Protein: Response regulator transcription factor
Organism: Dyadobacter sandarakinus
Amino acid sequence: MRTLIVDDERLARNELKRLLEPYTKIEIVGEASNADEALTLIDQLQPELLFLDIQMPGRNGFELLSAIEGKTPEVIFTTAYDEYAIKAFEYNALDYLLKPIDNERLKDTIQRIEENQSHPEVHVHSEERAGKVLGADDQVFVKDGEKCWFVKLGKIRLFESMGNYVRLHFDDQKPLVLKSLNNLEERLDPITYFRANRKHIINLNWVEKIEPWFSGGLLVTLQGGDKIEISRRQAIRFKELMSL
């Protein structure tokens, strides 16, 4: 993947190049110290991926992206500041890496890039995204306190209502987001995400075991061990979806 590094700090560029050395699919074709240099190189080199700093002399990283004519490369933001994470999501960033860049975090990012190459996605602008039904391959930004993630929806096995919040279950993480379960249900692809009861939406791709339960309901076990009751009313729909 043809890659351009854009950062005003030479030491930061050199460190990132060192970290990227083990990843043979990442071909660094150039580097730039500011937005103007980057625009010229993007036009000349046609990179597929940018590792992009945000705060730089002159135009910042967001202004750089807005100035690109034609197809915009995939973007991974690299910055020492976490306050730009939400805005980065609006630009469809693949990821948001905080400096100093952690090697394991970078490894996860490269794996995501390789997955995207194997299963290319259709990227949409933020205003189109707001009304878009989200499926397993869509990536979302999640922030809980000081922690933030870019995570593919397909990795989220369970959405759990917690009052005015929803707890997301993915990997070994369980962050809370300020959303209602009803609001999320409207945005999620009903082919993949199923409203099991008033408190839970499950990812059907994570269903491991199904058992009869009280009063005509069902008990579903997800990969990882979560056990979720499907109400009698929803069990009828569930059986239709799962062709039971």
Q: What stands out?
A: The helical segments are 10-20, 35-45, 61-67, 85-90, 103-118, 126-129, 181-187, 232-242. Residues 119-130 have pLDDT under 50 and may be disordered. The longest strand covers residues 156-162. The chain is about 30% helix and 30% strand.
